[in-house]
From TrEMBL:
InterPro entries: AB_hydrolase_1, AB_hydrolase_fold, Sec-Metab_Biosynth_Hydrolase. This is Alpha/beta hydrolase. Keywords: Hydrolase. Residues 7-220 form the AB hydrolase-1 domain. The keyword Hydrolase applies. Signal peptide: none annotated. GO terms for molecular function: hydrolase activity. The keyword DNA repair does not apply. It comes from the Bacteria.
Amino acid sequence: MSTIPAIVLVHGFWGGAAHWANVIVELRRRGYTDVHAVENPLTSLADDAARTRQMIAQIDGPVLLVGHSYGGAVITEAGTAPNVVGLVYIAAFAPDAGESPGQITESNPPAAFENIAPDSDGYLWVKPDKFHESFAQDLTEDEAWVMAVTQKAPLGSTFGDNVTEPAWRTRPSWYQVSRDDRMINPDNQRRMAGRLEARKVIELDASHASLASKPVEVTDLIVEAAGTVAGN
């Protein structure tokens, strides 16, 4: 008997749960209504993983975690919860034990690295006038401007937080690479996808905001992962 998992969506830096809006609508069109979107504080990997685990613990049954960008580090850390049955990475970090998103970024910086700036309180921002070209060049100017104005800045120290026990070592994983990503170098994405031995890797002609610009293709991958872990 198959058991379709609940889907928990985890956002990354400079975004919030609403970044998943187009995917949420597409999932509903396909009959997936047991869908949850975490709103993480972006204050530390430990804080964000704890908040995500709280949501996982509220779900009675299997859970498929889906992480975008830094949300990939969060699902890597939180995905060892016993009812998590799979992980889907959307242009996301998938660090190993003792590794941080910052280490991965420094090893192969993205094209828009210089467009990230700290404020006096230690939060990191994508410069608003550079957000469209950096984060979401395949969205309209208006769509990207809304993202720029509403961006949720992380504490800069979060970049350096290491994963402790990577869930992808014990859970099946799927990965979507954004070929035109200017926030996480596409070659880093390919390397991480290969290291976690993803069940399936897809590449999209997309910006970092593939969850917004390519919701049908992203949802295709999520639905395929959900069907696989359900035994369909």
